Amino acid sequence: MTEGRTGSATGAREPGAVDARGRLGEGRRNQKMRTRRALIDAAAALVREGRSITISEVADRAQVSVATAYRYFSNPQDLLVETRTVVRSPEFLADLPADPADRLDTVVSRTADAQLGDEALWRTLLKTSMDRWFEQREAGVDEPGGQHPIRSRSRLDLTRTALEPLAATLPPELHRRLTMAVTLVYGVEAVISARDVCELDPEEAKDVMRWAAGALLEQAVRDVPDA
């Protein structure tokens, strides 16, 4: 009665058919991931060349159609924001020292190396964030609680990871204050201040950021009542 049909009388499908569909689905997901990464890499390459970013230019560099590119990113700003989350090397948080001071110094040093070594890209990413701020202001979404985030929280997360060993040592409010203070003294804004305002070369700019972060940590430890 069931001959000529695919599968058994219970409706089970042939194992080969399931595997084929599974492989097809996985292949499709992998292809979409490769396309997305190609677009992000193409945007980063254009920024490093000092060129303006448009979806069509990025699509051309990534060798995909403009229609395909728009399926992943609706505007250049979204593409550049995504670029920021990918350009940071995965080694940023690899093999961090246990000592809090060495741990923080490692995170600040790695961040400085990446950003000072690729200033054009990071300055463009900052400019994109500022453009989004003005766009939101003009659109009337800058009321308290109504503004969408325009900056990535990745640097704050890096600082929290670096200072995590001190969470059990410092009072909560002091630990939070140290986290916020350290976040202010490194990163792309600090790079611009060091390079453009202070006119430091990259090596000295990095050293100043490391010194400032270390000084803040030392002061916080001294501020502990029973230190």
Q: Could you report the average pLDDT, rounded to the nearest whole number?
A: 82
- Share in β-strands: under 5%
Q: In sequence order, what are the helices and strands, one letter per element? A: HHHHHHHHHH
Q: Count the helices. How many?
A: 10
- Between the first and last Cα atoms, what is the distance in angstroms? 84 Å
The tally of domains stands at 2
| Quaternary state of the chains | single chain
Total strand segments? 0
Rounded to an integer in angstroms, the radius of gyration calculated over CA atoms is 24 Å
Keywords:
Tetracycline Repressor, domain 2; 227 residues; 2 domains; mainly alpha; globular; disordered N terminus
Task: Give an overview of the whole structure.
- 24% of the residues are buried.
- It is built from 10 helices and no strands.
- The protein has 2 domains: 15-85, Orthogonal Bundle (Tetracycline Repressor, domain 2), CATH 1.10.357.10; 88-222.
- Helix 6 (119-138) crosses helix 9 and helix 8 (172-184) runs antiparallel to helix 10 (202-222).
- The protein is globular, with a radius of gyration of 24 Å.
- It has helices at 15-48, 55-62, 66-72, 76-87, 100-116, 119-138, 154-163, 172-184, 188-197, 202-222.
- The chain has 227 residues and is mainly alpha-helical.
